[in-house]
Amino acid sequence: LKMAKTNKNLNNFFNTHKFLGSFKSYEDIPFSSIRNECCFIGRSNVGKSSLINAITKTKKLAKTSKTPGRTQSINIFEISEKINIIDLPGYGYAKVSKVMRNDLRVLIENYIENREKLNQVFILVDSKVGIKNSDIDMLDFINSCSKKFSVILTKIDKISNSHIDFQKKSISSLMKNYKKSFEDIYLSETKKNSGIIDIQKKIYDMSEQNEI
Ligand code: GTP
Ligand code: MG
Fold first, then answer.
1. pTM for the complete prediction?
2. How far, in Å, CA of 208 to CA of 18, rounded?
3. In angstroms, rounded to a whole number, what is the distance separating the alpha carbons of residues 49 and 64?
4. In angstroms, what is the span from residue 82 Cα to ligand 1's centroid?
5. Ligand 1 mutation pick, 40, 41, 45, 199, max ligand atoms within 8 A of CB
6. Does the beta carbon of 35 sit less than 6 angstroms from any atom of ligand 1?
7. Tell me: the pLDDT tens digits for 132-184?
């Protein structure tokens, strides 16, 4: 029986984790990874840090906040010594200065472009808000770097099933523009943890593909 098939083993896998550090810029990360990495990006407040906590079955591994702009650096977490998960700052938050917004975008883009073992970008979209221009810019950037990505529609507890279907369809149709980079669409919410297992399985499968 494959490990990913049993939820208990999946939880054990994700429960074994370690905080490797928090870095103000891509150049500050003192180590390159020998393992596969995946990162979580998206507009400010979309639920990146909350999702990382749901995946790792913790409350406070990644710092969350009601007010946008909570995560300001690159935070690296190691799972079962097999794969790294990276929490990144949000982009597109209107209330910070233009300079600051640009700095955060550069930080995210440098990480995505240069980190060699990064082989999956999870781009989170608030299901109530939908895709914004800042998301399209980021998708174009990921595509230009030839990195693989998946979309996660977050906070589905806040909208109706028909609205979820609508968002899913409109994103699927947009993904026709990203055929070489796009992989999957996921739905999630972190109150009752719907959809978390599917994301865990994706990350677990990536950890099995380490070249070491
Ligand atoms: P930044 O680091 O500031 O970019 O934000 P983030 O994307 O990391 O968001 P964070 O996880 O801090 O969550 C932002 C807010 O959304 C918090 O108040 C969370 O409680 C809330 N939130 C996160 N996930 C969900 C969800 O699935 N459903 C609902 N209803 N709220 C959520
Ligand atoms: Mg955050």
1. 0.95
2. 19
3. 6
4. 26
5. 45
6. no
7. 999 999 999 999 999 999 999 999 999 999 999 999 999 999 999 999 999 99
